[in-house]
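Example 3.2
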Amino acid sequence: MVMKDARDESVFDVRIVERNIREGRLSKEEWEQFLASLEDSASEAMETSTQMLAVAPSGAIKRTKS
């Protein structure tokens, strides 16, 4: 994998990668190479369940109905 700046892997942060491509910090080819280099770890995943909490305007926390 070729990186423009080996010290800063944050260019691959999925939350800002589109901006980095648009601003020339990362090319689409580099992004595609990075994605292709990731290993598939789906077999290591665990199923979880989550109960969401809502914050009332008063700041009190209340449970939401599932």
